[in-house]
Amino acid sequence: MSKERAHSAYRSAETLKKMSDRVIGFGPFGVGLDGLLTWIPGAGLLYSAGASIFLLWSAVRSGATLSTLAKMAGLLGVDMLLSDVPVVGDIADVLWQGHLMAATTMQKDIEGRHGVPEGMDSVLHRPRRRRTGLGLLATIIFGGLVYAAWISDFRDLFKHGMGYAIVNASLPVGGHAVALWLILSGGLVVLFLLSLLRARLQKRSA
Fold this sequence. Notes:
two-stranded antiparallel ribbon, 4 strands
């Protein structure tokens, strides 16, 4: 298997990792399209299946070993199962970074055989990142979003369907009912901006 084809798969995997599980990322935690689309009936499963097939196809083209393919298939299988489970599975799917782990598994295999592509970071020897303190702030914000969803009327409205609950759920704030989707959207935007700031600060200190 050519080095060029393997390195191309390495780069594609890195892009998919960020799209699927690291659009917003802090340390080992992240949220991407896989976690966000899981709340839209059918969309999460469709995306998860497409991304999984792409990763496995890329691994085969890169000449990955059978053990690597088997590990990737297991990680991606769990990801797809979570995408198809209502509510509990949706929450777990946000936390389970199946695509990221499977892509990293493939990258380790490629790096072990062909080295790291030019301009890319090693997945086998990650450099230590400088602490910025923003990770703790992001954790607090994320916890607040989970708490907001928990104390809202989302669970009561869910009997009418997930889409209906997401659109109509609200949370009393200062004597006014604020739409839950607006609170969650605002929180995700803040987390995204914090992740960009954290990455910039870490890059300057490297």
